[in-house]
Amino acid sequence: MASPAGLEVVSDDLQAFYTRVAEDSDESESRRKAARLFVLAERRLTEEDHTQALRLAEEALGIFQELVDSRATLDCLRLVIHAHQLRADEARAAGDNSGARDALKLAEGILQEALEAFRAAQSCRGQAAMLLSLAELNCNHRGSKKRDESLNAADEARLLFKECEDPRMEARAYLVASKALYKKHRVSDAKRAGEEAIRLFQAANDGLGEARSWLALAAADALDGRHDDALRSLRKARKLAQACGHQELQGKLLHSAASWLLEKGDSKAALAAARESVAAFKEFGKARCWEVSALCLVAQALCLEGEAEPALALLGQEIEAAQRSTASSGSAKVAAQAARDEVTLLLQLVNVHMSMGNFEVALETAQESLLRCREVGNAWCEAAVMESIAKIYKSMRRSGEAKSAALQSLECLKGLRARKDENEAQIHMLVPMLAQADDAAGAVKVAAQARALAQEREDRNMEAWSLLTACVTHGLSQDFSSAVKAGELASEVFRDEGNRRGEAKSLRALAEIFLRVGNYSSASRSARQAEALLEGFGDERLLASVKQSLARILMEDGDSRAASQVALEAVKICRASEDMEETAKMIFVAIEVNLACLSREREGPKELREFRELCDRSWRLAQEAAGISIRLNKKPLEAEAQHWRGSVLLVMGRTQDSELSANAALTLWRELEDRDGEVSGLVLLAQVKLSLKDNAAASTALREALALADGQHRTGVIRKLLEEVSTMSQAMAQEASRPNEEREAESPESSPSPSGVSTAESSFKAPNRELVQGYIVGLVKQISSNDDEEFELDTPLLDTGIDSLSSIQLRAQLSSEFRVNLPSTVVFSYPTVGALADLLVEECTTKQIAWG
């Protein structure tokens, strides 16, 4: 997991102290010179000139050692180790893993040698300083086991600094511990360590240290899903950074704010923060890679604001600037960095084109960036580009090519010996690609490989994620027993590691598995446990998704009222978070649950009233989602909103309006080249045509959908619908021919009945018109709550309290009572009780249906 911008260790922030030493005329010239070198070295580290910083720090170290200045020697030793550590990070970013390992090995050799010397001399401060350096060194990019060693070293250093009565360095030990605990997902412990660091930095009057500690607290809150708390902590950190005049830290704090605001769904605030971050980095002038990263956040926020074209223009300008910098640079190092910046911007350009549905253009751009990566020989960038290409192919439903690109990305990571990144790519990239390609067996195999690698790396959190992935993949292959075992083990490991989000996700996955096998009690229990874990946790999106699963479970278990209520709670959570896009998506789920509830048979006035209320609620939700999609100007969202609007209209009996919405959704999905969406649109259109008794058009739409559909489940559903259409067509043909056959059977020439009773004696008796009218009047009063004693039979039904929603109930009840199929527009075509009675008597008489 990448740390938030600004939390990485750069130096001990001692420039101010050594500047005073350098300017003190009472100090010796040698000490003043060493102090100047120290200040320059720290400055070069912040400017990312790590090689020059190392040379200057080593020179300062030599002078201070000659002067036998133990405190300054310790500061220089830590600065040298920081320089080696940052050189390792630089080499890793350039794809030079061998260089990164060499730099870390050098740093570790220096500090171990110094640590042994300080232990032999029983130097409390010396031991503490080297143990803190060891904690910083082992916290990043060295695996879970080294991170445990980092925590132990930080704890030991903290106690020693406390013994030495050095609160500032004790605070730095707490800060490193907070970062290590953050990476281990131990959020509560990370926050406690951050709070202690804040207290001690305040006591030491260290503004920059306190600012970084507030950032550590913010990072822990963001990991917990508490974005509002995280942003409050960031504001405090930024005030301190401004007071200290630290431009680079201000830029990084704004960068973190923009990232978390994007996660929160507040694209407008994210855009403002990202632009401020860009401005801060430009003013600092020495952190082009961070400036590029902030520019990418600006582009993301613009896309979410529906401003994709300005995002394209911005990225185009910056790509040209990066290309000019590469061409004009006289330094190989600067040219390589400019090339990496160019690839980063190209990848963001790919994301923008994908958000616009321009998959072919996105693919061309990604291939261009791939060539650029290979030109500069950066395997890290190549792995990232291949992952983007895999995502593009996945969006284009080209599963085989997506899988191939994902495997190539994985091979790049293996070549870099980036085992953590390889582990993450297995779980979050390759498994989803295989699942989409219906290769459930392959997905199960990769999930098992991911777990084995996590165990080898002794990374318990990653092992838990691989188990969760195994749970899902076993479910895809319908090995539900293995799925449950993997899910329960994942939940247990996450719980042991203190990762509540992971535990909640595992419980939700278990609930989905139990739902699929019809074990509703276990499914409900798992979902309720996940819900309880997340109450007050802060991750509102995850809580909403858990409630979504619970709604489906309750729906399948027959508790329609509770299902609808829980689905509505999920919508309210998303509304409260002011995430419009997520609100619309959750509305679609709520409508789906409501429609499933509406499809159930209903009897009696209470259930009919519930039916009416649910129709009304679903209609309001559909209108809200349509409004959101238009405001956000997002075609994929608008297409889905039209689809669900059409589905609600169909249930309400407004077939013509439903057909308009279905066609609108279908048109949008075709423009977006979204095959999945197009299949959904065609199925809805087929259902509308069935309602209009246009079986030929319904069959055509379903066959078109079948040709586009991927996956056994979807094709199975469509085939089933086709069978229903075929059966209905045959039934209608038989019904059309039935009266002639019956007349032939009832003619005088026909043979006598077996009982010897003549056909005249067993003749059919038509329903009594007055009784039918009386039944309709009673039903209308019941549905519309009309107690008017002066009920006129020629009064239009729409004037009696029957509206478009209650007309659905009236039609359904009459169809059930008289066993006839009535048209969806029956109330409009036969607008009075008398006209309805005539229709029903005629239908029953024609089809020889007895009633009364």
TrEMBL record:
Domain Carrier: 767-844
InterPro entries linked to this entry: ACP-like_sf, PKS_PP-bd, PP-bd_ACP, Ppantetheine_attach_site, TPR-like_helical_dom_sf, TPR_rpt
Biased segments, Low complexity type: 748-763
Disordered: region residues: 729-764
Domain of life: Eukaryota
Pfam families: PP-binding (PF00550)
Gene3D superfamilies: ACP-like, Tetratricopeptide repeat domain
Record field: transmembrane: none
Signal peptide span: none
GO molecular function, one term: phosphopantetheine binding
Keywords for the protein's UniProt record, in alphabetical order: Phosphopantetheine, Phosphoprotein
UniProt-recorded name of the protein: Carrier domain-containing protein
Highest classification ranks of the organism: Eukaryota, Sar, Alveolata, Dinophyceae, Suessiales
